[in-house]
Amino acid sequence: MSGTRVALVTGSNKGIGFEIVRGLAKKGLTVLLCARDTSKADAAVRKLKEDSASYQIFPLVLDVTKQDTIDAAAEYVRSRFGKLDVLVNNAAIYAAADGLPGVAKVDAVIETFETNFFGVIRVTQAFLPLIKASPSARIVNVSSGLGSLALNADPNSPFAAVKPLGYNSSKAALNLFTIQLAYELRDTKVKVNASNPGYTATDLNGNSGTQTVEEGAADPLRMALLEDDGPTGTFTSDGAVFPW
Ligand code: NAP
Questions:
Q1: Is 76 labeled as catalytic in the residue annotation?
Q2: Which of 9, 83, 130, 177 allows an S-S link to 88, with CB 3.0 to 4.6 Å?
Q3: How far apart are the C-alpha atoms of 110 and 95, rounded to whole Å?
Q4: What is the 3-state secondary structure (H, E, C) of 97-147?
Q5: Taking the chain, what is the end-to-end CA distance rounded to the nearest angstrom?
Q6: Chain-centre distance for alpha carbon 204
Q7: Tell me, what's the pLDDT at 3?
Q8: Catalytic one among 94, 167, 191, 199?
Q9: SS (H, E, C) 62-74
Q10: How far apart are CA 224 and CA 155, in angstroms?
Q11: Cα–ligand 1 centroid distance for 91 (angstroms)
């Protein structure tokens, strides 16, 4: 892969997304660090540039639930770069009123889908023309082990008791989106994969996760940097295939 590669990571002002930006910048990619507001994006870029002033990281406002911000971000990338080589759909929420299917607040389930599923569709569709303009593009959908139907159905899974309806079903839907989009783009240079970061200490889970953000970012980064002979339409975790 030659030339400067351009990447965009949604929800990357903190947590796993922030580490994914760092990892991509370290590899020499030009990275668009996205946040819901300018001050968060600017602060995160400043923080990463403390690592190295030579990192090519630029702040971008993008709220995955707001089509106007997505369209403006896509127009910015089009006018400045004319293509997008790597899209990491990372932004997600875990709503407080989510819960088991009998008690989850429907509004919380809807709110979760707005970000974790519909947001990914909005962003991916807006950027698809720029992604197709890349000679070798990657889409990584940051999913979750909690979105695995196989693990949800397995009473012996270590996460068997973790069944918030909105969050888990939004990630299961995201996995299906991954499979379908990979199929749709099978004859193109775009590879589409879902990646599970694993249980990672971030604000999403009140910092209860057992992995560091560096560990959580590792598999999504690996899939973002796949070589041209890499797979498409997969779900991976820790460098290995994970059950859908
Ligand atoms: P996090 O620290 O809470 O970060 C989530 C990011 O998404 C934040 O930057 C947040 O921005 C952003 N975001 C939320 N709603 C958004 C919206 N409408 N538009 C744009 N950005 C939005 O969570 P994380 O743990 O790093 O999560 C990153 C990804 O990993 C998610 O897809 C999550 O489902 C997945 N994951 C995490 C774990 C884990 O154990 N942490 C495990 C499996 C999968 P604000 O700062 O503005 O809120």
A1: no
A2: 9
A3: 10
A4: CCCCCCCCCHHHHHHHHHHHHHHHHHHHHHHHHHHHCCCCEEEEEECCHHH
A5: 30
A6: 14
A7: 78
A8: 167
A9: CCCCCHHHHHHHH
A10: 32
A11: 4
